[in-house]
Amino acid sequence: MRIPRIPTGPWVYGAGLTIVLLLTYWVGVNADFFLPIAAAEEAPPIDGLFRFMLVVGAGISFFVIGVLLYAALAFRREPGETGDGQPVEGVLTLEVLWTAIPTALVLFISISSYNVYQEISETASLTAGHTHTTLLSSAEAQDDTPAVRDAAVDLEIQVEAQQWAWLFTYPGVKVPTGELHLPVDQEVRLVMRSKDVLHGFWVPEFRLKQDVIPGQTTSVRFRPTKTGTYVLNCTQLCGAYHGAMKVEVKVETIPEYQRWLKEQAAVQP
Amino acid sequence: MVDASSLDVFKESGDWRKYFGFSTDHKVIGIQYLVTSFFFYLLGGFMAMVIRAELATPETNVVEPDVYNGLFTIHATVMIFLWIIPASAGFGNYLIPLLIGARDMAFPRLNAISFWIIPVGGALLLSSYLIPSGPAQSGWWAYPPLSTSATDFINGQLLWIISVIVLGTSSILAAINFIVTIWSMRAEGMDLFRMPIFVWNTLVTSAITLLSAPVLVGALILLTFDLSAGTSFFNPTGGGNPVVYQHLFWFYSHPAVYIMILPAMGIISEVLPTFARKPLFGYRVIALSTVAIAVLGFTVWAHHMFTSGTPGWLRMFFMFTSMIIAIPTGIKVFNWLATLWGGKILLNTAMLFAMGFVGMFVIGGVTGIMLASVPVNIHVSNTYFVVAHLHYVLFGGSVFGLYAGMYYWFPKMTGRLMNETLGQIHFWTSFIGFNLCFFPMHQLGLLGMPRRVAIYDPQFTLVNLIVSTGGFLLGISTLPFIFNAVLSWVRGRPAGANPWNGYSLEWTVPSPPPVENFVKLPVVTSGPYEYGREDKAKEQTLNEDESR
User: Which of A16, A94, B83, B213 is deepest in the core (most CB within 10 A)?
Assistant: First the structure.
């Protein structure tokens, strides 16, 4: 079977570009096919960034693959054909063009990403490491700066990760619990420590991830916006049952949450 | 029955037993590298198929969870350190002296040692399956404290570390050899800007290896002390910091991505012009963008740690550098496209793999930019999105490039042509299997499936089944290649010195080349991609006649 050679010319290029644009548009309108629901205030800006990069990326991929297919069909050597193509060794204008366009694109994406990071950082403190570690390096240090910290969030939960379980300590509750309940529309901070190896906090519906590192305190701050049950996954390989180190995250209305919290407070150590 | 033509091969290429001995001929060593690494590729691929069998269903049912962790650890280690890196070095060994007009590598004995270290390192790695506690299970990153938690003195992690140090040493020795050879043994007239891009990329790759691999070896030595001697370089209970290991590890392992992709980029930069019958578009730009990628490649490592213990400013810095590296990479892609444009394209298997490389690598590059963006990275890091991305770069990129090279230079190495029909079957089954296997992984990661898990949420069952089906097809796709290679080596059609009408120096000598390569060392008067230029073509024919 031989596919006939397709012609060249402006209308073919126009048709090709139209197909690329239509496919890109189709990917754009179906972007949410790739995403779970957004259940935290921090998720929509991240999704916006993802959709933008998906559309640009899909456009570039369709264009490149389109040119490859077109070249394969239009410039294919006929059986028995000999001779070479034109000895074009380079065109400066083209080189400048395809240096400038990607440069502009990645700069734009960098700036957008920076802005989104600032936006989610205001509400979701994802910083860890040096500055953060000094601030939260010990329980004493936390007690030294209660005003700053309490003003920032509505609820702070101490999280302890170990092979292969998560433990949560709520304010006013003496016994740690294995369940994560969160009141909807409240600013929450999880202050996380690990008892053994690296672990990772990730709730796909919140779009937030932070490693839990032995010897350090890391934290993640967010505001859940949709009631429902989600799953907290461990995302750093932590041993044989890493894949099973999951726990349900229940985002509840405030009365439901308070009822649950009262039950927990009643448990004797 | 012995075919008369097969007797000729033995006469031409000498005794086949030389491939099993300590030869110092770069061509023998090159083939030793390629065949050995291909064997490890099959082994790593088999492990991948066991992994995909396990992941065909959400529960654990094929292997135990700890065995599973061992499988993906050894799969990655084999594919990186025993397949892509040594296979690239195999092409380098075979081709560099031929491409620059030299009789051998600068240090032939060192070259043989670099090769023979590899089976030793590989055997050491696999021997961990024979000890009671089994192989390393902490992933190929070997992040402490998980990697330093073994209790036996001889354990899989220790064997893993020693093996990677051994293999790293092989890389370092080979890198020194390549740099010295390319720098000092080029034929008269072979200026830097007359070197084929494969030579450029091998030179740059070697420089990256030389600067980064010692850092990995150093980090692994410290890790050994933590593991076996109870020190606390990275152990928080003794005052160490596991994040320091992550920095040291990725300082090698990000540049290692370029160590794995640049040689393949070099290969397709040879294949595309030959079968498009056009000069490589923007030759100098491509050569210099390789150098730019190498330099920038040393400034991006912490993008693997955006969700680790890294402060915000550091995340922003490494996001910016990671974005910048897309520019020289994009430039290469557009230059390859321009090389094809208006050519007289011959769509044989080598060309299909080379064009497949460009298409698949672009998808891997695009997801790479997404991963460089910190907010999106925070969602998708350590998920199947990353698994998809890295396989688009390393399989759709590096492995397709290596296959392109095998089809392209097989006639030079063996004196025989490969079967084209089997080649086409190989390409299309690989291409379909590859996309079926790795494309749906993007969605898995975005929707919430972490990587390195043996157990997953039942909502992902269907997509995982598709992925596993693609994985098995990909496994099967190697069969026509193996069959083709063996059959063609024994009784393929004789290739002649220059079956593709190429212009680089390897095509001026007989196939397979004589032990000393060039009877008389060539004097180079033109570049390697003089397609479409009648005057240069005539000159080439003259040189060719002279060398015979």
Answer: B83
CB distance A83–B344 less than 8 Å?
yes
Domain-by-domain residue ranges, chain B? 28-547
Same domain, A197 and A103: no
In a domain, A19, yes or no: yes
CATH class of B28-547: mainly alpha
ipTM reported for the complex, 2 dp:
0.91
CA atoms within 13 A on the CB side of A215: 21
> Which residue in B309, B331, B370 is closest to A57 by CB distance?
B370
Task: Please tell me whether residues A149 and A244 are part of one structural domain.
Answer: yes
**Distances A267 to A174, A254, A264 between C-alpha atoms, Å:** 8, 20, 5
Question: Which residues in chain A are contacts of B75 at CB distance < 8 A?
Answer: none
Mean pLDDT per segment of 10 residues, for chain A of length 269 residues?
71 92 94 93 94 96 95 88 82 91 94 91 46 35 38 86 95 90 94 95 95 93 95 95 95 95 82
Domain count, chain A: 2
User: In angstroms, rounded to a whole number, what is the distance separating the alpha carbons of residues A50 and B28?
Assistant: 49
Q: Which residue of B has its CA nearest to A201?
A: B307
B10-14, B136-140, B428-432, B439-443: least confident range: B10-14
Q: Alpha-carbon distance A3 to A1, whole Å?
A: 7
Q: Do residues A99 and A150 share a domain?
A: no
CB under 8 Å to B327, separation ≥6 — which residues? A99, A102, A103, A106, B292
Q: Are residues A203 and A109 in the same domain?
A: no
Indicate whether B114 pLDDT > 70: yes
Task: Tell me, yes or no, whether A104 and A181 share the same domain.
Answer: no
Residue pairs between chains A and B whose CB atoms are closer than 8 Å: 285
Q: Let me know whether A167 and A99 are in one domain.
A: no
Q: What angle do CA B233, B238, B241 make, to 5 degrees?
A: 45
Contact B324 A197 (CB under 8 A): no
**Residue B378 touches partner A, C-beta closer than 8 Å:** yes
Q: Quick check: B544 pLDDT over 80?
A: no
Q: Return the residue in A122, A209, A210, A229 with the most chain B beta carbons within 10 A, the one to mutate for interface testing.
A: A209
Three-point CA angle B64, B68, B70, nearest 5°: 120
The answer to whether the predicted template modeling score (pTM) of the entire model surpasses 0.90 is yes
Residue range B416-439, pLDDT digits in tens = 999 999 999 999 999 999 999 999
- Compute how many other C-beta atoms are within 10 angstroms of the C-beta atom of residue B355: 28
A29/A70 same-domain check: yes
For residue A244, give how far its alpha carbon lies from the nearest alpha carbon of chain B (Å): 6
Is A82 inside any structural domain?
no
A55, A157: one domain: no
Note the pLDDT tens digit of each residue in A34-91.
999 999 999 999 999 999 999 999 999 999 999 999 999 999 888 877 788 888 888 8
Question: Could B278 and A208 be called an inter-chain contact, meaning their C-beta atoms sit closer than 8 Å?
Answer: no
Q: Which domain holds residue A111?
A: 10-76+90-124
Amino acid at B218: G
**Nearest chain A residue (CA) to B58:** A243
Pairwise CB contact (< 8 Å): B337 & A216: no
